[in-house]
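Contributing new records

If you add data, match the layout below exactly. Sequence lines come first and carry their own label; structure lines follow with theirs. Keep one chain per record. Anything else will be rejected by the validation script.
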Amino acid sequence: MNFTMPLYQTAAGFARHTDPDARKREASRGTDAFANASLSTEALLMLAGLIAAIPLLLFAPGARRIPPSMFGLIQYAAPTLQFLIGVVIHREPFGQVQLIGFGAIWIALAVYALERLWRAKVRRA
């Protein structure tokens, strides 16, 4: 089955029902970012997609170069940093229940990582 077909049908239906004069009305109201922006702002808006895509394009080859077990552990770094920013910088509430859950997750990750290291050491010996 072609998985893009439902998306095509949705896009075609949207295109059929979109008012062709909508862009002109948006521009006249002052809500269209491209119509009311300077040339440099328009260029930045157009480059935003490319700028966002570059890290994603570099991520895929990088992810293939490391073992899946390490990749899994690294996936916990971003949520942990977001958590620390929320608690330390933005003073988000962090009670005992959250501390127990956070601690349990990281204890489990430490046990997993230490077990992997132990197995690698046993294999080398």
